[in-house]
Amino acid sequence: MINVYLDDYRPCPQGFVLAKSAEECKLLLEHEEVGVLSLDYELGWGQPNGLAVVQYIVDSGRYPRECFFHTSSPAGRINMIHLLTQHAPPGVVIHHGPMKRE
What we know:
It holds the Pfam family cREC_REC. Residues 2-85 form the Cyclic-phosphate processing Receiver domain. This protein is of the alpha/beta class and 102 residues long. Strands 2-1-3-4-5 form a five-stranded parallel sheet. Strand 4, helix 3 (74-87) and strand 5 (93-94) form a beta-alpha-beta unit. The model has no long low-confidence stretch (mean pLDDT 96). The protein contains three helices and five strands. Helix content is 34%, strand content 20%. The chain has helices spanning 22-31, 50-60, 74-87, and strands at 2-6, 17-19, 34-39, 66-69, 93-94. It has one domain (2-94): Rossmann fold (3-Layer(aba) Sandwich).
């Protein structure tokens, strides 16, 4: 099982695999069991965003065990959380913000 951090700019936290694009993140979700997924929304001008990853999760049924949202986009966070909470099966933990730093 792996933990995935989706971000095109911020440094990846220890213990996570970095996905710099929506496509990289979808490939990891497709081929690996994901424990914790932390999502950014904006992933570069003209690039698919974090909502595209959430839509992939919903369409494929490849849910992580836990989801965090470290994006600085309030609207992006709301849209991703809303889509996930509408469709996630019981047992998937959806946090409404970023991971706590120790």
